[in-house]
Amino acid sequence: MNTQRRWSGCGLLFKIGFILLLAEVSQCLRITNLDVPQSYIIARGDEPPEDLVLDCEYELDVATAKGFVLKWKHNDLQIYQWIPSKKPIAFTSFKGHVDLEYSVSDDRFQKYRALKLTNPMANFTGNYSCAVQTYDENEVRSAHLQIIVPEVEFNLTYHRESNGSTVVQCAVSDISPKPELALFIDESETKEVVLTEDHVQGSYDVVLQHVLTDDSKDTAIHCQLSIPGTNYTKKREKMFHGAAFRANISTLQALLYALAAAVLSSTIRY
Q: What keywords would UniProt list here (predicted)?
């Protein structure tokens, strides 16, 4: 009895495996690669914009390609459609931002599969999905694209307060999306900072300030700018010469005192 059950279970597993294998073999439409950049940097000023191309590579059995259509979606909203017997079309706010003449192949079923975006906008950030389908099959893949509007300024400075303390400041302005700043003192990141953030019309201004605990010694300072989820990073470095800085301050103070005394003496004389 146990032997019979064992063989019955093996037979069931064999049937399931055969069905799965048959399904795999019978798949005639399959997306093999979705090429969506992790991020894209919008050019500022007179810099010529780089091409932004999203590609959807797939395998298709032409014998079963009846009813084939390719669609691109942005955050689940359809923005592009191509049927091989027709010209591609763009939808919604992406009209005027899609190169409808761009092709990647002479193959009738591959020619207009890619999406070339012209003059991308900051609000083009989001999830992009490529959907290919026939009357019998449907395949979808998605990936995230982050549009970056680079900063106008990114500075690392230090100055002396009226109370005698030395303040290091790292500041970035007019950048999108929200960046992260990290301040390093002698190669060690400091968490003893005052963070100020301002968000206006989609752009961010971020400032980090740190008071040096010992401004009498030479100190290596650097600030790192990054945008989470992307490879966008920048760095500013500065050497703080403590003794020289204090000497310059003392000299300046002495000159100011001397100038004030001279002005006062001249005033009394007259």
A: Signal
